[in-house]
Amino acid sequence: MKIKIFLSAFAIAIGCIVSAQPKKVIADKIVGQVGDKIILRSDITNAVADAQRQGQQLPPNPECALVEAQLIQKALVLQAEKDSLPISDEELEASLDNQVRGFIMQYGSKEVLEEVAGKTVYQLKEDFREPFRERNLADQMRKKIVDNVKITPTEVRTHFEKIPKDSLPFYESELEVSEIIVYPKSNREVESYVIRELNDLKKQVESGDKKFDQLAKLYSDDPGSKEAGGQYNINRNDKMFDPTFTAAAFKLKEGQVSPVIKTKFGLHILQMVSRAGDDAVIRHILRIPPVTQDEVNETISKLDSIRSKLIAGTLSFGQAVNKFSEDEGSKFSGGRKQSRDGSTFVTIDELGKDEVLALQKMKVGEYSQPVPFTDEKGKKGVRLIYLQTRTEPHRESLKDDYSRIAQRALEEKKMNALQTWFKTHIPNYYIAIDKEYSGCESVKEWASNAVVNN
Predict the structure, then answer these.
(1) Where among 258, 287, 316 does a domain terminate?
(2) Contact 367, 306 (CB under 8 A)
(3) Whole-model pTM?
(4) What is the CATH number of the domain that holds 305?
(5) Mind giving me the DSSP string for 313-338?
(6) CA distance 129 to 19
């Protein structure tokens, strides 16, 4: 049996928003069962159709694969319930809220979502509740099974030596890079001028001369919401937004415009569009006070002083990141850049142009001169780069890629532990599989222990 863990995200498509659309009418029946946990044919068919509609990459024989994924999940859930694994109501509620907010953003508004689904958001949350609860329990059970699986250096070497030499992956040059990032602050006069501008926009809305969304399209510095009239769907408990921003939003009544507030992103005015409990639709106009070259030069001078201390050894890079860096994305990881797969090794194409130019002449262990840059939101910053390691293009080897190989060997060992667990536990469950799917290659081992329904 090959336990396809990667299918878990695909499996949760069951109960998805689109499957609630009335246009999908499918004669339903139970096509699989593990213990008292059932799998419906409509769940399988709708989930595959929804995945195709959304352009997801599907495995071969997707219906067979999804039946297998659901059999796996149901078995894990049964055992989790038997072992009384805890499930947090708060975490479950947060997951449901995030899912619904994601759909609201996808469809543009709560009203459009409800029209498409033919249900209220509260009904949708209830539809998702059981699939989400099962996914949570299955994840906990999977973690419990593999939690104590460790890997030894000997096992890593054995894993590596089993790979044919001509099948070893080839890696381009990669770097481990850490950064200290500081954003220049605009002077008080400029900030006061921007506050006056925002107050003027607030008056135009409150007098009825202009609509808030029109002004947001014209004047907001937030590219993420500008074209949507500054609109966001937020939740009081969502950590995605600046706490000051969220607190200011939930003080407003519908239609009301806030005073000017200051967050880490800049200066804002907000308008409450609608609110339902801890969920709200708001609009905002963001203005980022411009910084002059004088402020940029001051920041360069500050980072140049930090660089001198790093070179002299009177300050460690980790200490400097904790004390001075303003990049929240890397501040708590020692300033390390991360690749798309979460690794600390990055390739040149994953770096900005200014970073690439600075690194070209650097040797491992060196610190760059302070480098000015502009981020994706148009905000000016200055970075100090530390080049920790640089690899040459090469075939995978134990010497250069031990951590990668060890991680791969560990994942394989965990997979084997899961397979062993399932082989031991499948005979202990009542399993039923409809004849429509009993011939699937991927469920063969399940079928050998199952009652086949006509």
Answers:
(1) 287
(2) no
(3) 0.66
(4) 3.10.50.40
(5) TSS-HHHHHHHH---TTTGGGTTB--
(6) 15
